[in-house]
Amino acid sequence: MELTRRDAAAALAAIGATGGVALGVRRATDDRGGGPGDDEADAAWDGEGPPDDEAVREAMTAVARVLYPEEVSGIGAFVDRFLDGRLDGSAHAEGVRAAVAEVESAARSWYDAPVAELSAAERDDLLRGLGADTAEEDPGGTAAERVRFFVVNELLLALYSSPTGGELVGIENPQGYAGGAESYQEGPR
Amino acid sequence: MSGAESVGDERSEAEGGADEEVDRTPVPDADVCVVGAGPAGALVADRLAGDREVVVLDAGPRFDPADRLARQERAIRPFYGRPDVWGVGGARDAHENAGDWFYPLNHARVKGIGGSTLHWQGMVMRLHEDDFNSGTERGVGPDWPVDYADLRPYYAEAEKELGVAGASDNPYAPPREEPHPMPAFEPSYSDSLFAEACEELGIDMHSVPNARNSEPYDDRSPCVGYGTCQPVCPSGAKYDATVHVERAEERGATVVDRAPVERLEHDGDDRVTAAVYATPDGERHRQAADAFVVAAGGVETPRLLLLSDSDRYPDGLANGSGHVGEFFMDHLFAGAGGTLDEETRQNHVGFYTSACDQFYDEADAEQAPFKLEFFNYAGPSPVEMALTGDDWGDPLLERLRDGYGNHVAMGGLVEQAPQADSRITLADDRTDDRGNPVPQMEWTVGERALDTIERANEIQVEILEELGADVEWVAGPDATGPAYHHMGTTRMSDDPDSGVVDADCRTHDLDNCWIASSSVFPTSGAMNPTLTIAALALRVADDVEARLSGM
């Protein structure tokens, strides 16, 4: 089942960000060579300091490929579009960047490679090694709890509050998605 | 701004430089001072604002409408509890529990502009005729000093003000004079499953009135199905009292947020002279007015009166009867649920569309009135399930598919009879952020309500079994809880020795002080109280205007 731009927009609408506005910000940011923490234009993030937006996108997409079920396609564009709205100037965006830095730091320490270059099994092990599977989300908690909040649950919230994510489970109008006041009247599809 | 944790609590001084610009000083020459910007206070203010100088003081903040989606994220994410969605809790909202039953007060209220309608479910039934004559008709509690006929025109007005979607298909509802302002929401798919079972059993189903737009109304959106009605509607389709606060302000009223009223002062002629309130800068102010309307809900209203004791009123203002704070009531939840071997299409919306009032008026001294509800949100929400657990990928999807899809459930509300030892008092040794004694809950529930919960459970289980459900849970007398409807603590009575306010909701002891709240309910019935609160508030506004005109 393919995730679409509509799914990403729906996920953003569900959690209070507007992708369109933020998209403009991103382009302006790209024009000047990177996002926060990127001191050298055109240089890839080297794992030191806060990751720039592109590094966040790469890492989040790589993690999403582990978190999302096999039958989902279109993950890269979905995550990219979703992050257009989330990587704004909010405290939340800073939390995402900091949590991604934690994940990247562990990846480079344990596997000597960025998250995006790890195999799916290694990414799964990485997240479990960080404790993000058993941790309860907490934006101000331990590293595991912050990774659970800003990375794992961030991506699961995006997927399962979207119409395609909902349909995977059997609900095309999941909680958080403004899917109208008709589907509740309809029988099984 | 995105992100649940990016929402400001609008309570700390450090937040928002713009707040420095807010003028919270008293309004000169005010005619009416309203305490509380929930539905009652907002309706009173709106009704009077055109002709009168009205000021509204509320303890909580003015919430930014732009944060509603982020509040919805809080409602979905497991890190946040229900009180976190609207910033309830902390020293401001401290309270004590000292009764037989624990009362989760901070789950049951929102402080701020809009009050608890910000998180309410939005169900708006009229009380039944016998509810106003419970003593005579059922042998339980006092009769109200007003009856259904007195409130009937105000009910109709309240339905228009709030915007109610409903139909006239309920043979058990009290008589009404005209259709609801909007058509009812269509029944759900699961309603159709219940309907077959109920037909077999001779149990009637009918629509329910929702304060939720089934079509565009009052420049607000129709419901778009976010599915998080309780605790937050991002679309504005569900009525909340910010509607009337904004309208009152447009008509000239002054609404001051973060201005907790700490006491009411009076003169030697038994007239309230001023509301003393605090502001975030640590200052205290006196708002003088000709008339005062206390609309702070069933807990903070009696608390304010008790805090306002004086030499003339040593037991609390307006407490000549000694009943301020007594007879605290809530509705008791009765429910049952389980699973079917077929899809039931739950959690698309956060409200219910069918109910059964068939058994309501069987009530007598032994059985309380009760109503039954057919849920559209039985079982877990997949997105909420997805955020807990130690799995992801295919195993998570498998768990979600196993957990979602075939649940059914029924709920119901049961009346609690008034009893003096179920009450709100002031805590002896605990104070809030301003140094004022916090409310102490002493909630006690009698046998009649508990027996009636069992009766409701019997019917619910019978329906579920007829439906072919595997009944997996029953919320009976041991598992019941409150519906977050605070009632009874400044009861209405013609007799000054028996009640706090008269039939006009004006305090017996003070000539220029009214109470607009479910706290005036002498008995509670089993219908959600807000439409009755709204009807009484409109009636209070008319009485205030009449008396001001006659002054």
TrEMBL record, chain A:
Residues 26-52 are annotated as: Disordered. It comes from the Archaea. Residues 37-52 have a biased composition (Acidic residues). This is Gluconate 2-dehydrogenase subunit 3. It comes from Halorubrum sodomense.
Automatic annotation (TrEMBL), chain B:
Its cofactor is FAD. The keyword Oxidoreductase applies. Belongs to the GMC oxidoreductase family. Keywords: FAD, Flavoprotein, Oxidoreductase. Residues 214-243 form the 4Fe-4S ferredoxin-type domain. GO terms for molecular function: flavin adenine dinucleotide binding; oxidoreductase activity, acting on CH-OH group of donors. The keyword Oxidoreductase applies. Residues 1-27 are annotated as: Disordered. This is Choline dehydrogenase. It comes from Halorubrum sodomense. Pfam families: GMC_oxred_C, GMC_oxred_N. The lineage of its organism: Archaea, Methanobacteriati, Methanobacteriota, Stenosarchaea group, Halobacteria. It comes from the Archaea. InterPro entries: 4Fe4S_Fe-S-bd, FAD/NAD-bd_sf, GMC_OxRdtase_N, GMC_OxRtase_C, P2Ox-like. Transmembrane segments: none annotated. Signal peptide: none annotated.
